[in-house]
Amino acid sequence: MEIKDLPLEKWTENHVSTWLELIGLKDQYIQKLHEDEVTGPVLKGITEDFLKAKTGMKPGQIDLLLSKRNELLKSPQQHETQSNEQPVLQKKEAKGSPAENKRNVGKKNRKVSVVKEPGPAKEESSTEKTKTDSESSCKRDCNPRPFDTGDIDFKYVKHTVLQPESGIIDRITPCHEYKSFATAALLDRTQLQAKFANEVLRFACGCMNVRTNGTIHFGVMDSVENTRHVHGEIIGVPVNDRDFYVDALDYIERCFMTPSQKEEARLCIRLPKFIEVIHRDSQLKHWVIEVDIVPTVKTVRGQIYLVRLPKFNEKSNKVELDKKRVYRRVGAKTEPISEDDHIEFIAGMQERDKRREEAESTSYQNPSLHSEDLGRKLSLLLTCGKNRIDNSQWYILVTNKWETESLKYTNFLLNMNIFCVFDFDPDSKSSGLCSQYEEHHAASLHFLKDYTNESGQSISDFIKHLHLFDQTSWIFCNGRSEYLGDENSCDEKTWIKTKKKHLKKAISVICNEILPTGSFVVLFLLMSPVEQPLVHTFHEFYAEMNGNDYIVSISESKENFTKWASHAQDSCSLESLNCASIVGMKISHIDETVQSIQPIKTRTTKHLRVFNKGLCSLKSVEEERMLSLEILSIDQCDDIKSVDEDFVKNTEGHFYQGGKVRWEHFWLADNTHCGEFILRDAYRDVAKILDCILKSNPPKKSVERINIYHHPGSGGSTVARQLLWNFRGDLRCAVVKPSYPVTTVCEHAIQFREYEEKDRNNCLPVLLLVEDCDEEYLDELRHELGNAIASMKISPSTLCFILLSCGRSHDPEKMYRALPLQTVAVTHKLTEKEKKLFAQKRRNLEQQYEPQFILTFVLMSEEFKEQYIKDFVEHLLQGIDHSSLVTRLIRYVALLNCYVQNSYIPVSHCEAFLGLGIQNDRVRQHYFEYSLSEQARLVFVHLRENPTYISSIRIIHPLVAKEILHQLSGNQQQSAIAMDLLQENLLFEHRFGRDDFKKFSRNLFMRRYKRSKGDNTDSLFSPLIEHVCDEENPTKAIALLKAAYMRFGKDPFFAQQLARIHYTHEHFEEAKHWAEVAKSHLPHDSFILHTEGQVYKKWFYVKDDLLDKEEATAENTAEIIEIALKAIACFRASQAAAKSEKDFMNNSGYFGQVDVGFRLLQLIKSVDLFSNENRKSELIQYLLTDHIQEEVKKPWHKFHSQLKGLQKTIYEALEWISEDLSYFQTDKSDEEEQKHKEQEHLYNPRKWLLSKTTAYASFFSDMVKSDTQEPELMNPQGLTPLMRRMRIYQLGGGNITTIFSLLTDHKTRNLEEIINMYPEDLQKEKLDPIDLVNYIFSQIALGCASPRSPKLVTLQKLQELSRQLYKQSNNRSPTSAFFLHFLLFWPDESQDMDPSQHNKILMSAISTLKDLYEIKIKNVPPRKKRIFTHFFLGQRKGLDRFIHRSKLEKLLNGTLNEKRLKWHSGEVWATPEITQLLKRVQGWTENGAVFVQGTCKGSKIRVLPLHYASMPNVNENVVFYLGFSFDGPVAFNIQVLH
Fold first, then answer.
1. CB under 8 Å to 1410, separation ≥6 — which residues?
2. Is 1034 exposed, middle or buried (0-12, 13-18, 19+ CB in 10 A)?
3. DSSP reduced 3-state for 704
4. Of 1485, 1388, 1493, which Cα lies nearest the Cα of 1433?
5. Which of 376-385, 909-918, 1105-1114 bottoms out in mean pLDDT, i.e. has the lowest?
6. What are the Cα distances from residue 862, in Å, to 831, 836, 872, 939?
7. In which order are the strands placed within the sheet that holds 703-710?
8. Which residues contact 391 (CB under 8 A, 6 or more apart)?
9. Exposed (0-12), middle (13-18) or buried (19+): which is 489, by Cβ within 10 Å?
10. Quick check: 710 and 806 in contact, CB under 8 A?
11. Calpha distance 1039→531 (Å, rounded)
């Protein structure tokens, strides 16, 4: 029922929304009122106060709504007022594009939307502007009325589409011409008849002269310029009086020249036929008027027909006849014959008569020629109206049991992009379609319940879990006969009870969460009698897809189809089913027909190179099983059937507008279908590095790595893919899909390397391209591949894999400088040679294409110069409508592209945002682009992101996005753009691609820049938030984070960011609140607890800085001390939580404790009671004893116990940090060495520890000195134990890390002073275990630094002291004590020792170290926290045999990064100066492990090989260099002993 016919009391919120759109209310208010469920009764009583309070509506909009509502209430017919105003509204709207003139509210449950129809249709009444969502968004094909029949039951459905206009086919098959006639149908009788007769007689004359049947249709769109309609779309026209049209043919008598021609015209031109156009929600009748032309040869033989067409002269208000003309059909048009062609046309008359006669004769003999063209129909249904099937189209098959004979004709399925198969044949896996399919393709076998997603995974994880898009998902809908599990077939009733709910869920998930409408076709293959479950599947798809526009049914058996249709018509009319069905066509014919429209050849064999330089075939099924790799074959793309201009243009356009290069593009260039690729200098550099690796004999490593770092959009990815393309004939090449875990990639890479090879040691190397992955992923992949090679006993001298890492970087040249031998930098700057090549290429492209088609290439040839981009964007944005939806979309895309690497927005999101609705795939991109402004069309590039091929857009280049954002920010600040984005419910709630969009949006507000991730700086907050803080103000940044917190479901990590930004700007109460909010969500997260500690730490620092230290008292410091102690408590809680976290290591709480604790000591020291030089002992007394001075007793009564434990807290934190640093390498770069002091604990923790330890010791040393400063007390032997320990700490001897730091910093004198501080006779004076450990390590360090120092004692003496430790060892013994035992008691042939006792100590120490290491490392992969090797075994004896790592570091040349690479790659062992110092230890390998002889005969010590690549693949005697680490002995440079 129309809205005008409903009383206001019965209006739903949908009716109200429609009416609000008609009166011109703004879209955001329509949406808000719809959400608030404003129905007709609510509208009647709605008030100004309600509108202000609930919707935030502005006064102008309120006045509009209320005045129109009052008019509505006064009107007896309610909607007449609005109907009368509609033409005025249309004229306004016609000025802009459809997308900018309207916007759907977008709610899923909203059924009514207003659709404006520009162009000819604008004269329709306003009621015709209302249509359902499904009709306005989907247009399906239809067939014309059967030719020259009076089938009165035939009807057209509005908005269905006839086949395109046609010319002469075979003279019997009618040609077709369309006229919308929308304007003419409303004219008066005289004008209408003249117009109608003009069109009919012109068309009829054209058909009669060329002797072809034809039909002219009125009410069918002929031109689609500036309209929402498509060519051939059924629109219909109103018909008030049929006689007007019938009588119009009386013009025949006036327009034809002779009586005989007039009579013949009457015989050939049939009377008009009026075919009703049905439209579900419209009561107004519209018609398509059709006139058939049948020029039989006996009627027209020998005649040339001239006609004078009638035209209405508006000036004279009369119908006049045009001059005489001869018309003919030329293609799909009717054109007059020129005087030059007239004689030739007459001469061909007899030939045309002859052909017509033959056609008529053949037609009578073969009536089947009039049957439906099923081949063409099948092509149109499967391609959605395109010329051929393309890779962007997915297919879902629904089928039942196939006969054995039919299985021979399944080739057409092999090259289809089949997303999934709903298979109702329980025997399919053993003897049916699945069995046949798996001979050629890999399939993931599932059941319906697998799609229920009961675990609640995100859609992204769900897709990965089921391997969707990578392999065809084969869903057994009624059990599997050969399956041993609990999945049996059942009868129809049982199926409905048990499986129907799973089917419903599966289809809902696919249609609503995974595949956007228009991106897939559901193909029902009815191969056997149909049962009810198959029909239920149709109903579910029909409901979820809002119709059957993308549902195709194929049935060889008419009986099967009849039964199917009788059940299916509950959802869909028989007419619609017939339109979308292929019935009676043999499966063998279907097979051949579909193959003919597929772009690649069926069953084409791909080939790979093998080790002996021959070829092997790569089966598709094997390729698909290696689903984490995109494999590049030697004959890649050779299966392309044909190359046309559109294919070349689309491929080149995708690339030159900023898309990633495709393999097809290289293939086209190689086969001279398009221009050649420019070979960048960077390509030659990479190829040179690769060539050196391949020619290295023997290879240095089994897994090599080459790095390409590139500015975004500078062509780095193209260089990498060019390398793969050009080397695919010499190596095996593949691209890694980084969405897969490293273990999967490693497994598939090994399979790929060994595919069709006989000997694992004789395989071609595999070149693996890994794009835009972080260092961690690459490191893990390299590690896994190395382990796999070692475990398979492959010779370590065999080159197996070359990892080609291609990643974006803001400073590629810096990355190149770090590792120049294996790195190539690709920047926006061109060399002189490249400039010439780019200039020439640009000239060539500009001759072929419009400038916007090659925009990115033009920018590249200009080297992305800042001024050029600025001028380009400034010119681009001239005259842009800042208020339009499209400009808003540009802002959002620019914001994301500027700040979030590789971000994009799915096209379906954009369509929803612009209110475009769902489009038929064949017009989708055209319609979307048509809805965009000129600026958007220029800067948006269309992508089809693998693996889903969901269309998406981004701006052509990040630098362009940045400049657009900058220039648009003049009109609206970035914070406002970001805030608007967060409020866009349509974008965040839209289903398809939602996970990616949310990830990009979250990163926009959350992800910080990190140099380690390739960014050009380290940021405290996301770059957007930092920009808003710096360029606008922090308050706006805080508002953004609050909005993000709510948008992302009260994400605790946004609460954490709010706490951080508040304390950064010294809003401590707010910071405390947000830290507590974050903690309430994740009470045991160590990082959030650390942030809470940081709040109190910063608060404490600020208050401490504001305090006048001259006026510090116990009273005015109490609050400050309390805040400091809260910080320490939070840091301790953070560390307690970190110990229980198994997947990562977080030690930041210990650093926080030390920082706050030490500053707190300085604060306490400044209090008037303790500040006097003569009162230092008072402070020590307070801190280290139970004594509490009266002056502080009351003010500090809450925290005396905490303050008295402060010294212990700091000490224990320093010890823990020292132990942690003893275990692992602290990776830092040259640039990081120069970092700010505040970040020293991150970038140089060893230096930080030495500094803090010294400061801590100095504080207590100064405090415990006597006021008299008696000289004898300065003698070490006269010091108290505490003062002596503090003095040792002050000198750097307090723990193993600081002691060895003295070696690195060449502070030998400190080591002697440290040893001086210990008692002369350590046997008599018992030291604490930790002090004894530190003394022995100081001796070892001094032995390394100054082997001739008089302070040194012998190795035997140190072993004796170490035995004391061994006797006292227990669970609380420091880890360093066990490392000491391991070091000192390592077998030494020159020593006289008790073998059994030494062996016992050594084996116990190594065993304990390994146990402690397992506890320390948790579940963190060892490659993330590399073990640190402190000492190496040297050639000398005694203490001299221990070579500290720092000594070897001095012998290495290069930067810090280069030295690190030499250690990591093993290049260090090729340095003669180093190998001369070290001793090669003999051992053996056994089942993949390395062993050496222990102190006692028969005992063996397992040694950890740090470089698996050097491990022999069999049990062998070996030699290696031995290192000492906190994980026990480690082996370097393992070689077989010859």
1. 1527, 1528
2. middle
3. strand
4. 1388
5. 909-918
6. 12, 12, 11, 17
7. 629-632, 732-736, 766-771, 801-808, 703-710, 823-826
8. 417, 599, 949
9. middle
10. yes
11. 59
pLDDT at 1282: 76
Residue 896, pLDDT score = 93
Peptide bond into 698 cis (omega under 30): yes
Could you tell me how far CA 1197 lies from the centroid of its own chain? 57
**62 CB neighbour count, 10 Å cutoff:** 20
What does the alpha-carbon distance between residue 1269 and residue 423 come to, in Å, rounded to a whole number? 94
Three-state DSSP class for 614? coil
Angle ∠(536,541,543) on CA atoms, nearest 5: 95
Residue 1204 pLDDT > 70, yes or no? yes
- pLDDT value at position 114? 32
Closest CA to 804 of 714, 700, 720, 742: 720
Q: 182, 141 in Cβ contact below 8 A?
A: no
Cα dihedral sign for 65, 70, 73, 79?
Answer: negative
pTM across the whole model: 0.68
H-helix or E-strand spanning residue 1531: strand 1528-1536
Which secondary structure element, helix H or strand E, spans residue 555, and what is its range?
strand 551-555
Strand bridging mode 551-555 / 581-583: parallel
Q: pLDDT of 1285-1305, one tens digit each?
A: 888 888 888 888 888 888 876
Q: How many CB atoms lie within 10 A of CB 1487?
A: 5
Q: Which residues lie below 8 Å from residue 588, measured CB to CB, with a gap of 6+?
A: 408, 409
C-alpha 47/C-alpha 60 separation (Å) is 14
**H or E element in which residue 923 lies:** helix 921-931
Question: Rounded CA gap, 1414 and 1434, in Å?
Answer: 28
Cα separation of 628 and 735, whole Å?
A: 9
Q: pLDDT tens across 1214-1232, in order? A: 988 888 888 876 655 444 4
Handedness of CA 1433, 1436, 1437, 1439 (dihedral sign): negative
Strand order in the sheet with 940-945: 905-906, 950-955, 940-945
- Enter the tokens of residue 850: 């419009």
Question: Taking CA 1103 as the corner, what is the angle to CA 1248 and CA 1062, rounded to the nearest 5 degrees?
Answer: 80
Q: 563: which 2 tokens?
A: 């039964």
Edge to edge, the sheet with strand 306-307 lists 306-307, 325-330, 333-336
Q: Got the DSSP string for 215-235?
A: EEEESB----TTSS--TTBB-
Residue type, 99: A
pLDDT given for residue 138 in this prediction: 54
The torsion angles phi and psi of 795, rounded to 5 degrees, stand at: -55, 130
Over 1266-1294, what HEC string results?
A: CCCCCHHHHCHHHCCHHHHHHHHHHHCCC
Going by the DSSP 8-state scheme, the letter that residue 1418 receives in this structure is T
For residue 1433, give the nearest of 1421, 1447, 1419, 1420 by alpha carbon. 1447
Report how far residue 1383's alpha carbon sits from residue 1524's, in angstroms, rounded to the nearest whole number. 7
